[in-house]
Amino acid sequence: MDKFTRLTAPAAPLNLANVDTDKIIPARFLKTIKRSGLGKSLFADMRYNADGSENPSFVLNQPKYRQAQILVAGDNFGCGSSREHAPWALLDFGIRCVIAPSFADIFHGNCFKNGILPIVLPADVCEQLMDDAAQGTNARLTIDLEKQVVVRPDGEEIHFEVDAFRKHCLLNGLDDIGLTLEHAAAIDAYEAKTPSWKPAINGV
Amino acid sequence: MSRTLFDKIWDAHVVDRLEDGTCVLYIDRHLVHEVTSPQAFEGLRLAGRKVRRVDETIAVVDHNIPTDADRLNGINEPESKLQIETLEANVAAFGVPYFPVSDARQGIVHVIGPEQGISLPGFTIVCGDSHTSTHGALGALAFGIGTSEVEHVLATQTLLQKPAKNMLVRVDGVLPPGCTGKDIVLAIIGKIGTAGGTGHVIEFGGEAIRALDMAGRLTVCNMSIEAGARAGLIAPDETTFEYIKGRPYAPKGADFEKAVAYWKTLPSDEGAHYDKVVVLNAAEIVPQVTWGTSPEAVIPITGTVPDPQAEPDEARRAQLQQMLRYMDLQPGQKIAGTKVDVVFIGSCTNSRIEDMRAAAAVAKGRHVAPGVRVLVVPGSGLVKAQAEAEGLAKIFTDAGFEWREAGCSMCLGMNPDKLTPGQRCASTSNRNFEGRQGPGGRTHLLSPAMAAAAAVTGVLTDARELV
After folding, report:
1. Contact (Cβ atoms closer than 8 angstroms) between residue A38 and residue A88
2. Which residues of chain A are within 8 Å of residue B410 when distances are taken between CB atoms?
């Protein structure tokens, strides 16, 4: 996983609530056995017309947002399915940070596993950032994870909260599995206490 | 200290605790399917890791698999074929137990777990699918995970998690005739909204929940995720124990008695603390149907489509207007009488034998309305066999309904069963998002009886008028 430390980039405004994972990437694009290459299918049903051409009014199709690395969105972003293809598609497009008043739990967790920082800020603050984002490439936001601040184009710093363990993993690009395996002895000890009635799935 | 059902299951699975409160949580059952696992197995392979506990893991194909009888002769769609072949190669290489499509036990992962006795009370159960919340109906802590976590569980049989908050949704009173678990859970989502349970595990309690059979409870917990909850739970009781007894992978004999003795300790203690409590009166519930493109956009079948002008919040008003446009409905129109093109009876929400019986009770002696296509898709090969033995399949085919093979089918537009743009579908599934059942498709969520009523009348209909 790539580290996330500090990012300065244009932000794209997606002023919609309840953006579900079917919107982020429709199920027909989940038939892949790879993590890469999903960026072109990001927001496919909003981004492309029925004939496959680009819908020029969709935010990420506008020239000033094609290089966006930050997305500012509405409430309950990422609701719906557990598909990690949603953060994979965002990442493949180039998005490293999503800012919203709230996120659905599974999507929120999946972001951290892929080097994407989801930032929760109050709705009125998100609206200000949405206004900043509406100014396009001239108005870059800076995200400083170490300091836990979003820096607005006018220099104002906005503090955000982040889980300490997840912050540590993002800053250092740490692999969860490696960390958990440091607890292998505890897992062994736990398994040794398995109740006698617990069946195994054998003999399928 | 008094603890909730969630607290007890959580505490029993903490392997280790990190400084900041993150827990290494043991996972008892890991259900694997073809869509969210290929990248996880690839990760194991690249790191030279094994599956730690193949005897706590089970794999099945469901999302991609076609549901026509011809599927045993091979799958036409090359990407689906590759994904299924990849799962088969992975389970063979890593030694994971697997129900292939040729096995009568194959079916939707959230149907077969309970059906086989693989999902049990007090267990932690995960799967790379958000509807894993279904298994909470047995009194298990069951939740969906992403592919990185699938790999994590395969490698370590644990997850790194922080505890959720506790929420109680109590449904008091007696559910009126013609209403089901589906109507209860849609009414709950209508009340608390699609983010109402975010950060929480919902425990469903109260007289109306206790009175549900296991199929109804599975339906309720299935849609907890549609209320934004991490998981849904129902305390295990005699209904649960009766359901589990004798299932293939459930404990047997003296082990079953030992297990039941433990399971009886799980229900929440008197005075246990919930961070949030919501109460509904079951007697007020009317068969529900969604009108919009979010499960919270739900009304009684006797109701009318809301008028966005009545919504004071501007962003919310715009969202309602977009829903009406997408669904091609008018503010104030009666939802009953809306013409449908397709009816889908199936999915992990409503494809169990009880659901088949409820749909058949309406379909019996009737015939599909002209121009309507009806797909009935049992949740597993065993549900299919039982429905055929009970004569339900004959009722469906006599009524002109398609009787298909087990799989996720038209719930999610990943296999050949899809809506075409503009088609309107009465569906027993769980999500009515834009394009969920196929690009441009329009979904109305409802119960199996209500779906069958729409099938034979050709319009959204109060099923209570037909029974």
Report:
1. yes
2. none
Per-residue pLDDT of chain A (204 residues; tens, 9 = 90+): 889 999 999 999 999 999 999 999 999 999 999 999 999 999 999 999 989 999 999 999 999 999 999 999 999 999 999 999 999 999 999 999 999 999 999 999 999 999 999 999 999 999 999 999 999 877 899 999 999 999 999 999 999 999 999 999 999 999 899 999 999 999 999 999 999 999 999 878
ipTM: 0.95
Query: Contact at 8 Å (CB) between B441 and B433?
Result: no
C-alpha A181/C-alpha B48 separation (Å) is: 14
Give me the residue from B28, B158, B433 closest to A187, CB to CB: B158
> Is A82–B80 a contact, with Cβ atoms under 8 angstroms apart?
no
Q: Are strands B231-233 and B200-205 parallel, antiparallel or unpaired?
A: parallel
Q: Are B174 and B68 in contact (CB under 8 A)?
A: no
Is there a contact between B315 and A18 if contact means CB atoms under 8 Å apart? no
The CA distance from A127 to B112, in Å, is 45
Judged by a CB distance cut-off of 8 A, whether residue A69 touches chain B is no
Residue type, B136: G
Write out chain A in H/E/C secondary structure. Answer: CCCCCEEEEEEEEECCCCCEHHHHCCHHHCCCCCCCCCHHHCCHHHHECCCCCECCCCHHHCHHHCCCCEEEECCCECECCCCCHHHHHHHHHCCCEEEECCECHHHHHHHHCCCCEEEECCHHHHHHHHHHHHCHHHCEEEEECCCCEEECCCCCEEECCCCHHHHHHHHHCCCHHHHHHCCHHHHHHHHHCCCCCCCCCCCC
Distance from CA of residue B43 to its chain's centroid?
Answer: 28
Q: Choose the mutation target among A2, A16, A23, A30 for the interface with B, i.e. most B CBs under 10 Å.
A: A30
Reported as a single tens digit per residue, the pLDDT across B136-164 is 999 999 999 999 999 999 999 999 999 99
Q: Measure Cα distances from B383 to A27, B58, B238, B392, B407 in Å.
A: 26, 19, 23, 11, 11
